[in-house]
Amino acid sequence: MRVAIAGATGYTGLELMRILSAHPHITISALTSETYAGREFAHVYPGYLKRELPRLEPLVPEKIAAKADIVFTALPHKEAMRVVPALLKHGSRVIDLSADFRFKSQKTYERWYQEHSAPSLLGRAVYGLPELYRAAIKKAKLVANPGCYPTSIVLPLAPLLRKNMITLSSIIADSKSGVSGAGRSAKTASLFCEVSETFKAYGVFEHRHQPEIEEQLSALSGSQVKIAFSPHLLPMSRGMLSTIYARLKTNARPQDIQDVLDNFFKKEPFVRIHPQGSLPHTAGVRGTNFCDIGFRLQDKQLVLISCIDNLVKGASGQAVQNMNIMLGMPETTALDMAPLYP
Ligand SMILES: NC(=O)c1ccc[n+]([C@@H]2O[C@H](COP(=O)([O-])OP(=O)(O)OC[C@H]3O[C@@H](n4cnc5c(N)ncnc54)[C@H](OP(=O)(O)O)[C@@H]3O)[C@@H](O)[C@H]2O)c1
After folding, report:
1. Is-catalytic flag, 148?
2. What is the pLDDT of residues 193-232, one digit of tens each?
3. pLDDT > 90? residue 342
4. How many angstroms separate the CA atoms of 293 and 273, rounded?
5. How many A from CA of 71 to the centre of ligand 1?
6. Ligand 1 pocket mutation, candidates 12, 40, 79, criterion most atoms within 8 A of CB
């Protein structure tokens, strides 16, 4: 299978390169960059010296589609919807890492982002969370890879919402992300002196992942869900931890919660439920495609803790998981990594 990465020089593009380099059944056939077009990938990332890779080229959708069966679009939103229709038209299947095709509701997308230039594709795109939509991903021509915060929040809540165990108005998600979540392009807010030795909340009730999380939680519960979501920036390069507070509708024992989580994810290769007495930490998933989940229960107050690597299960690892599903390959191919301790 020939695979292209559009936006190969960004952090998610680079992470796709790391993961796909270990994939036995694909060839990387095209890499795009506007800034470094014509240069070797190793010119930008010397860690890739001595690897046979195509040169970086500008993103001309027809040319890329002619070279690739699958295209990962690791581009900023708005840029993705500009090129995805042409990639599909010329026969490629697309896994888009941006937010452009994640929403079923055009109105919601346009309220939080901008006018959509390819709204007819919103209904055709499949939300790329394999634990919920595996069957549809298998047949999809266009997969909308989820956001990192949504992955870390939707996965732990999914089993409990499906079982109607949660008071919907009670959900609070308090999340922390590493700085690579903001991408590689230069921004004052991501400068070393702005993020190191400090810890801050940002975008409370204004973060664009909030409507995405709410759309998914609403689909799971069958009713409109609104949450309180407070994202924070951690002084580390990668990793994400979400602490999710929710009230149970009726009394339950910790073992009941453990059973619901264990049963829901028992066949899932990338979701690990911690046993009672153990809570996950970001180092345990660093560099891996795992989502680790733990919980505590006091009376009806449930606290769920989930950890992912924002660049792996939160982006490029999940994208490769989706590709494996689309191509009928074992889902764990190239994703069987151990965490990078320390
Ligand atoms: N970072 C994360 O943790 C994360 C997690 C989940 C989803 N995402 C989403 O994934 C997408 C990529 O994120 P990222 O963090 O990898 O971003 P990034 O580091 O800023 O990289 C963006 C890439 O897009 C290319 N690009 C920028 N403008 C372009 C244009 N007008 N035409 C063609 N290519 C263009 C850049 O290429 P050149 O600069 O070389 O030209 C670069 O390769 C975003 O939509 C983001 O929201 C990111």
Report:
1. yes
2. 999 999 999 999 999 999 999 999 999 999 999 999 999 9
3. no
4. 5
5. 14
6. 12
* Average pLDDT for 241-257: 98
The domain segmentation of the chain, as residue ranges, is 2-147+313-326, 148-310
Tens-digit pLDDT profile for residues 24-51: 999 999 999 999 999 999 999 999 999 9
Sequence-distant (6+) residues with CB within 8 A of 309 are 238, 239, 240, 282, 285, 286, 287, 288, 289, 290, 317
Virtual torsion, Cα 281, 285, 286, 290, nearest 10 deg? -150
In CATH, which superfamily holds the domain spanning 148-310?
A: Dihydrodipicolinate Reductase; domain 2 (3.30.360.10)
pLDDT at 259 over 90: yes
> How far, in Å, from the CA of 185 to the mean position of ligand 1?
8
Note the pTM of the prediction, 2 decimals: 0.98
CATH for 2-147+313-326 (3.30.70.20, 3.40.50.720, 3.30.70.790, 1.20.85.10):
3.40.50.720
SS3 273: strand
Distance 12 CA to ligand 1 centre (A): 7
Query: Is 72 in a helix, a strand, or coil?
Result: strand
Instruction: Identify which of 71, 150, 125 has the alpha carbon closest to the alpha carbon of residue 313.
Output: 150
Tokens representing 157 are: 């809540």
Catalytic residue among 148, 193, 291, 307: 148
Which candidate, 152, 143, 64, 134, places its Cα nearest to that of 101?
Answer: 143
- Which pLDDT score is estimated for 102? 98
The Cβ of residue 163 has, within 10 Å, a number of other Cβ atoms equal to 13
Q: How far apart are CA 57 and CA 36, in angstroms?
A: 8
302: closest CA among 238, 340, 252, 241?
252
